[in-house]
Amino acid sequence: MTGPLDIPLPVLYGLAGIYALLVAASLIVAVMRRRDGSGRHQELVDRTKSWWWMIGAFTVCVVLNQTVAIVFLGLISYLALKEYLSLIPTRRIDRSVLLYAYLAIPIQYYWAAIDWYGMFVVFVPVWMFLFFPIVMALRGETEGYLRAVGTLSWGLMMTVFTLSHMAMLLVAGDAENPMAGGLGLLLFLVVLTQLNDVAQYVWGRMLGRHKVTPTVSPNKTWEGLIGGVATTIVLAGAIGPYLTPMDMVWSPRPAG
Fold it and tell me: What is the pTM of this model?
């Protein structure tokens, strides 16, 4: 069943609920900041703003069309890969090879757009993993070769291959998820990912005592991690039947 703009009703209801929560959260944060001007709630402010941006962007993609959504997701991969490459050491001789990494982004998302899963699932982890070492080897520079191949290949894996699965969910989900379509699957993924982050933050602030990785993420605690995972599991079971083809016991719904 669809609503305005052919958007599945579960997705519309889900977005309406998210916006209601965002309005409530924004009001609560504003009151907290007004009562306490010390700035210790700045992290909450930043998290709320990021939520508004993410849900706003998702809504724009939903209102327009699937092609716009795929292009937007491809842009996210581009920005992620660009940020990754700015953090890792690269050899001067391999600078031109980076162009091939960027060109892999539209190709990977094209496979998702045409729903060619067979090519989608092997293009980066097989073909690009073979292509990069060959091209780099032909340049004749052996110093730092293995590190350069590994960092570039796995960077593409993390920022392009993994993120492009959102586009594949969007395209292929219509056939597998008659209730909410690919939009429902994508919304389910985005909401649970962000709610997990929020839940870990809240549980960590309330009960956090023991650090998970003090040098990597000083604010991450075991209490927050466990509480966030448990909360996410409960929420997944609650909203899964409305946005995905899974029921409360994580089994496929019977046909009809």
Answer: 0.86
